[in-house]
Amino acid sequence: MRIYTGTGDKGMTRLVGGVAVAKDSDRVESYGTIDELNSWIGYAATFMGKSYEDEYKEIVTIQNFLFDIGTELATPETNLRGPVISEEAISWIESRIDYYTDAAPDINRFILPGGCRLAALFHVARTIARRAERRIIRLNTTVMVSPIVITFVNRLSDYFYAIARYFNFREDVNDVFYERSAEVFHKIKEKGL
């Protein structure tokens, strides 16, 4: 089977079932951003190493969920055969969020994205998940999107935040707390920098 079809040369692509839509449609933006997120976490997972085998398996599970979600978003309602993920997926990801939140030290301030490499990579995943959620919400204004998909993608950004903090904790790297820029600038000036 050839990968290229020529359909995209005119700015169009086909959804599941064969309907042609513009490549910049809300539907394509939605599943395209889910694909971007899936690719990013696949990249991030390459840095996980042997000490994170269980977390790696968890990320692969999330990648499978994301593939299912992308398929649902690429399928017009007339071709859908029911939701591709269940309420159990939401319960599962919430349990993982709770686990990572409990494992890292309590905080009551905003943190800056970063820290160790894994934390930084998963903070980027968090922002891509938020963008995917915005795209899906926009799509939901014109077509029906499964509420389970919307909730799951919303939980994903919380998951990536929690696991990023967990990686910093495991790697013995402190989260950096947000400070108002005026305060930071004042400290820099005091040091003569």
From TrEMBL:
Keywords carried by this UniProt record: ATP-binding, Cobalamin biosynthesis, Nucleotide-binding, Transferase
Entry keyword Glycoprotein: no
One MF term in the entry's GO annotations: corrinoid adenosyltransferase activity
Entry's transmembrane regions: none
Enzyme Commission number(s) from the entry: 2.5.1.17
A matching Pfam family: Cob_adeno_trans
Catalytic class of the enzyme: transferase
Pathway as given in its UniProt record: Cofactor biosynthesis; adenosylcobalamin biosynthesis; adenosylcobalamin from cob(II)yrinate a,c-diamide: step 2/7
Superkingdom assignment: Bacteria
NCBIfam families for the chain: PduO_Nterm
Family assignment from sequence similarity: Belongs to the Cob(I)alamin adenosyltransferase family.
PANTHER family named in the record: CORRINOID ADENOSYLTRANSFERASE (PTHR12213), CORRINOID ADENOSYLTRANSFERASE MMAB (PTHR12213:SF0)
Name of the protein described by the UniProt record: Corrinoid adenosyltransferase
Protein species of origin: Veillonella magna
